[in-house]
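User: I need a structural model of Very short patch repair endonuclease from Ruminococcus flavefaciens for a docking pre-check later this week. Nothing fancy, just the predicted structure tokens so I can convert them on my end. Input:
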Amino acid sequence: MADNHSKEIRSMNMSHIRSKDTKPEIIVRSFLHRNGFRFRKNDKRYPGKPDIILPKYKTAIYINGCFWHMHDCENFVWPKSNTDYWTNKLINNKNRDVKYHEQMKENGWHVIVVWECEINENRLYKLIKEIKGISVSVETDTYSN
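Assistant: Understood. Predicted structure tokens for Very short patch repair endonuclease:
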């Protein structure tokens, strides 16, 4: 199936997709800051440049878009055009995520993944408990496949 847009329009659309300071990231950061957490964002010293680094809690938070990181939810749908490109790109993204999370854990960091589709008030309060190490059951897929 052919793309619905010309190469120029597709290029312009793709150029407007942010890699940092996305709406989900801003929501999570604002919530954490309002609740007294201080953090670094997108720190290049760590594998995968985690969206949020909380050194005090030795915790890295990755805020993932459901499409770009292949979350098993209704927000992820395989593209119908240029399927070879997208299959390769998305699988590489997922594999890279696994590698970065493992590297962080090997270095003693606690890794938390927050999915774009699950950001709500309840999830944000559970996030605080996860950061502080309070036992909480959170149904979060962290690529355990």
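Before docking, keep this in mind: The chain has one domain: 21-132.
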